[in-house]
Amino acid sequence: MTTPPPSVSTTSGVSAPQGYTAQADTMVQQARAIHDAAEDAKSEVKDLQPTKVAEKDFGTKHGQWHGQYSLGIEQVGKAADTMCASLVAFANSIGSAGKSYSAAESAQADAARRSGSGL
């Protein structure tokens, strides 16, 4: 989306805003892409926890750090899962907004056609 600087108009009346547009089809498509990517990531996130690295894999001198490592991996897994859920919710919001814009545009087009049909 491009946002040009506001222009100074010397004409009177109300002008349509410049720079802000909504393309409903694009919003719905991008929402679907975000949703699909988040769902794909969810399956990979499930593989993060619990850790598959055992205490013995840390070696005899570093085994004491396994507990903190496991806790860290668990926290990363939970954070990634939460991020995926947030992205799915965000995608749903974008998709809903796109559908709302599309419905509003259709309703306004119908109203404009009806108002001009009696001329």
From TrEMBL:
Residues 8-17 have a biased composition (Low complexity). Residues 1-23 are annotated as: Disordered. It comes from the Bacteria. This is Excreted virulence factor EspC, type VII ESX diderm. It comes from Amycolatopsis arida.
